[in-house]
């Protein structure tokens, strides 16, 4: 239980990647104690080191299917507000996880098992137990992408055409919660994201182009434009679009030359490093 006069506690449901650590740092900078629910199948074990070095951080490890234990842990710690940060691979739904009775009931009652339905249902269960799930950008507003050209180079005329087309396609698939990323070339859709994630989608587009014959003599422009969008009714509590330096490295490997993201609805992990990597590779980044 939170004792009067003690710092407020924030629950952190931590997936994979750097997102949970960025949010942890931001929450601690705001003076919050953080109770981390670390997922065995996803969270980096570095979380233990962070807790060992900071008395304001407590870590509890649990399996992906243990929804009841998650609730019990937060209630025992006096957590009434929580945040999700970090990816939990959608394909885990089809893995060997063993859902407890509460998660099994939730899964059986879902009309579809897409991200919005699944995480929205988890958020409702938490809310019914007195644990409010808040926006995953609550303490990370400075990392939200700004509007306009973010790199030295602006998109050229052909890339701008690809962005317009890519946003139309991306928003259509995002409306079905299929993915957030499309890869475009010469106003043709080369790859669409599904469960594999952004970087794998970019790599697949690059591999497809490497298989084309004809060298430089082709009707299809070889430069790829990556377009990442939020969902039409994006719930900022989960599955917010994110990019990092790894995204730029994946683009370089695939031969992509332009990245368009949604301003104010896309998190940039280490914006300065992202822009520096893009500039080094001649990649244009624009927030729309």
TrEMBL record:
Name of the encoding gene: lpxI
Keyword check for Hydrolase: yes
Name of the featured protein: UDP-2,3-diacylglucosamine diphosphatase LpxI
Keyword Hydrolase: yes
EC number(s) per entry: 3.6.1.54
Domain (LpxI C-terminal): residue spans on this chain: 147-286
Lineage, opening ranks: Bacteria, Pseudomonadati, Acidobacteriota, Terriglobia, Terriglobales
Enzyme class label: hydrolase
Gene source species: Tunturiibacter gelidiferens
Keywords linked to the UniProt accession: Hydrolase
UniProt domain LpxI N-terminal: residue ranges: 9-142
InterPro entries, sorted: LpxI (IPR053174), LpxI_C (IPR010415), LpxI_C_sf (IPR043167), LpxI_N (IPR041255)
Example of a GO MF term: hydrolase activity
Domain of life: Bacteria
